Structures are given as structure tokens and as C-alpha cells.
Amino acid sequence: MDAAKSFQSPESLFVVHSESARMATETVKVLGCWPSPYVIRARIALNIKSVEYEYQEEDLLGGNKSDLLLKSNPVYKKVPVLLHADRPICESLVIVQYVDEVWASGPAILPSDPYDRAIARFWAIYMDDKWYPRVKEGFFSEGEASKIAFEEADKGLLLLEEAFTKCSKGQKFFGGERIGYLDIALGSHLAWIRVIEKASNVSLIDEAKTPNLYKWAHDFSADVAVKDVLPSTDKLYEFAKLLISVMKGSTPEK
Ligand SMILES: N[C@@H](CCC(=O)N[C@@H](CS)C(=O)NCC(=O)O)C(=O)O
């Protein structure tokens, strides 16, 4: 390698460091919707880093997205959006990684080892692309379609139980002794999982079938960075009834 090219003067290092320090103090705003597991991810990441932020609730059910949301996420028009120094960052997992990098001096969210980081990203994509869609399908469909979807979701949980054993290396969380990237990716769904278990009379994260995930779910929900942003089962259950009635165009059952 050309030594002259790789050399960074002490002055330029100072400029780089002071720029990232300045960014860490810029204003932070989250556009969200409280029942959204994806919004919960962004909020947990900010809580882990003790970042203060303004929160703006979007009325998604009423179909009233703010101009700021439409302008900030013109591609998907979805929450969450993180506005940092008025610049938008979209997609929950991208936001979690961004928060980890900008507030790097706080507790690490992604694993430090590149291989562990790659594995964590792999399972997070699996959860979003494969596993959670089956859970949702089980909930929103009926009869045989619902049964098959829940069976697939169950198989996915067995894979995630195995992934937990490997990633946690005998510790409390996927990320070790503290909540990390995969904890946030899966844990953000816990409130909906409990509601779906109650409404559909199924057992997903089950003490007998997935004992490690069962214990993990308890520890995760009780964590200080999580407990105030994860909605209660009762509150979310009421919302789920409303959501279904809006989807069916009817009045919610009491
Ligand atoms: N892949 C996105 C999913 C975000 C998402 O689906 N957000 C939903 C709320 S849970 C939303 O904004 N829906 C509004 C819409 O679809 O118009 C992420 O991880 O951020």
C-alpha cells in the first residue's frame, strides 16, 4: 500500500472525530406508530444509547400520514423514520445499525466480530422475510391456511432457538449479557406474538418447545431499554381488534 495515501495527519483525525461528536449531539426525531414492531426497534436502539429524541405519532389506521412522513420516506411511506439533524433514515434495521454507528460510545448493538455481525444480519433478514410473515399469515387467515402458516412459524422458531444457543454462547441475550441487534430484531415482535397467541389460541414462544427463547423473551421484555416501548398485551389486543374490524370494514367486537 502507498504509505503516503494511507497516512492521516493528526489534524485530519481531529476533524473526523469532532464531526462525529457533533453529529451525536444533533436533533433526533422518530416518526412512528406505537403498535409497530419496526418502530419499537428504532426506539429500543435509541434507549440503549440513551439518546433523547422527539417522537411523532402517525395516524396510520386513520390513513392520515403526515407530510413530513411522506416527504421523509417517499419510497415506502412507512414508519419508522429517524430524522437526525433533519436528515431521514428509513427501514428499522438500517436505523438500528445507524444508531449503533453514530452513538458509538454507548453500549454496542451489533457484534464487534465481523463473522458474528454477518450471522446476526442473516438471522435478522430471516426473521423479517421468512418467519414473521408466516406468523402474520397465521393470524390474518383462517382454517387450513392459518394452521399451515402457524406450523411453518413453529418450525422457524425451532431454528431461532438453535440460533439463540449459538449466538448467545450461554449468555442471557443473542447479543451476550446485553441486548444486541438480534434481540431487538426478534424482541420487537414480542407484543404482537403475545396478542396473536391469545387471539388465535396458539402457543408460539412456548416453554416446552423453545425453552431458551421463552426465558429470553421474559428477560428481554423486562429490560430497562425495552419495557416502556413494548406495548402491553391488553392494549395491543384492543388495537388488533380495531385493526381487524377496519380491515373487514365492520365495527369491532366488544
Ligand atoms: N421493512 C420496514 C417495515 C415498516 C412497516 O411495515 N411499517 C408499517 C407499520 S408496522 C407502516 O408504516 N405501514 C404503513 C403503510 O403500509 O402504509 C421496516 O423494517 O422499517
From TrEMBL:
Keyword Cytoplasm applies: no
The UniProt catalytic activity note for this protein reads: RX + glutathione = an S-substituted glutathione + a halide anion + H(+)
Domain called GST C-terminal: residue spans: 113-243
List the Pfam families hit by this protein, alphabetically: GST_C, GST_N
Q: Which GO terms describe its biological process?
A: glutathione metabolic process; toxin catabolic process
List GO molecular-function terms, semicolon-separated: glutathione transferase activity
What EC number(s) has UniProt assigned to this enzyme? Answer: 2.5.1.18
Keywords of this entry: Detoxification, Transferase
Gene3D superfamilies for the chain: 1.20.1050.10, Glutaredoxin
Occurrences of domain GST N-terminal (ranges): 26-107
CC terms in the record's Gene Ontology section: cytoplasm
The family assignment reads: Belongs to the GST superfamily. Tau family.
Protein name (database record) = glutathione transferase
Q: Which organism is it from?
A: Sesamum angolense
